[in-house]
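so ive been stuck on this for like two days lol. basically i have the seq below and the ligand is zinc ion, smiles is in there too. i just want the complex predicted, nothing fancy, no docking runs or whatever. if the output looks off dont worry ill sanity check it later, just need somthing to start from for the group meeting slides
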Amino acid sequence: MGLSDIIATSIFQIVKTLRLTRIFSIFGSKHGFSDYFKGMEKVQAVRDTFGERTDEVLNNLKVELTWVGGYMWVNNIDGRLMVSAKYLNSGDRLDVYLDLIHELVHVKQFMDGKELFDIHYSYTDRPTELEAYAAAVKEARRLGLSDKRICLYLKTEWMSDKDLRRLARTLNVSCDQ
Ligand SMILES: [Zn+2]
């Protein structure tokens, strides 16, 4: 299943549905990942993460929309996926898609009992982050994205240019142009 299929059939539909329905009614309640992001279970990158348990994990994974926080992250108490409603509504859909690949790696790490927010490492050196970024970059490469576009994806407002370049180097992405 290609990116265009995923985006056309899942994220776009979801966002459209959310806009049409009363978005407030679902805040605070937790819905299943498969309710929001249909088709992700067919993505090879996701199947690489969870293997035979992919469908089971995605069916049981809770998602919570929130107004706080910029993008998405995994709650390190119960492993649910937190997603900024604003980001889901207005974020670049390719970035949202790659973030889902990234966050699902964190879901797997959480299932394996790993510490997701190990303060002994800075963000761009943390092994759990590098593993998640590597999966997203691998998927970006498969989709044919340029290094320039991948750099744009990697860049966040809390990351210094120096950190960005180091992260990119670790991931074999060229951010120097
Ligand atoms: Zn992460």
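The chain is about 55% helix and 10% strand. Residues 19-25 have pLDDT under 50 and may be disordered.
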